[in-house]
Amino acid sequence: MSENDKFRELFQRYICLKRICENARERVSNPGDKYAQKIEIPLSGKKAVNRKREVAKYFDALYFKIDELFFLDIVAHFEQIVFNEINNASGQLKGIVKERYRKPAPFNKIAASFVKDEEDIYSLKNVYNLLENHIPKSLSEQLSAIIEHRNFIAHGGRIGKQSNNSVENTVTILSEILRRI
Questions:
Q1: What percent of the chain has pLDDT above 90?
Q2: pTM of the full predicted structure?
Q3: Taken in order 163, 169, 172, 173, is the CA torsion positive or negative?
Q4: Each residue of 121-149: b (16+ CB within 10 Å) or e?
Q5: Are 171 and 13 a contacting pair, CB within 8 Å?
Q6: What's the pLDDT at 97?
Q7: Residues 65, 52: Cα–Cα separation, whole Å
Q8: Residue 93 in contact with residue 121, Cβ under 8 Å?
Q9: DSSP alpha helices (H): ranges in the chain?
Q10: Is the pLDDT of residue 155 over 80?
Q11: C-alpha–C-alpha distance, residues 175 and 78, integer Å
């Protein structure tokens, strides 16, 4: 399965989750009905006048959380793919260096250790630094914004910056970066 197929599969799961949530929102006409109780909408003790508004707020929060969790999932998947590619490239480069960089070249016995590997490029920010001047500037800026947003979500808003990128746009950007790698 190609990486873009995996991204599409993840995106389809996201769409499915959003639709399940939309369907549940439509079914919960009365927060006190059996379906609302079955899916455990936390509204017991609320006044009847406020319940519909509370249900709407609750589902809005669920939509937002689905977006955040999917965003983290897709970026983690991207990281996994990139680090697999780094390991593959590093292994190939080390093999080439060992084979072709021989005596009397200086450091010939340890030359392969000059090739970077996953331990040298251990974070998404380091991947960004590696790619920054090798992909178009607009794509580089979008990757930077994705990393900042990932950090914002992952660290509870303490680190990074929030982004307005849609989930679909994020998938497109990451897929294009993988295509270029």
A1: 31
A2: 0.81
A3: negative
A4: beebeebbeebeeebeeeebebbebbbbb
A5: no
A6: 80
A7: 20
A8: no
A9: 3-27, 34-38, 48-100, 124-131, 137-154, 167-180
A10: yes
A11: 8
Residue type, 101: Y
d(C-alpha 115, C-alpha 101), whole Å = 12
Find where tokens 């006409």 sit.
29
The structure tokens listed for 138 are: 């607009």
| pLDDT given for residue 30 in this prediction | 66
DSSP label of 21:
H
d(CA 52, CA 164) in angstroms, rounded, equals: 28
Euclidean distance between the first and the last CA atom of the chain, given in angstroms as a whole number: 17
Contact yes or no for 108/101 (Cβ under 8 A): yes
What's the rounded Cα separation, in Å, for the pair 151 and 124?
10
**Other Cβ atoms closer than 10 A to 41:** 22
Which of the residue ranges 30-39, 52-61, 67-76 would you say has the lowest mean pLDDT? 30-39
Q: pLDDT for 95-150, tens place per residue? A: 888 887 877 878 878 777 777 777 777 788 888 888 888 999 999 999 999 999 99
Among residues 60, 88, 80, the alpha carbon closest in space to that of 10 is found at 80
Copy the structure tokens of residue 121: 């490029």
Whole-angstrom distance, CA of residue 58 vs CA of residue 140: 36
Which residues neighbour 57 within 8 Å (Cβ) at sequence distance 6 or greater?
none
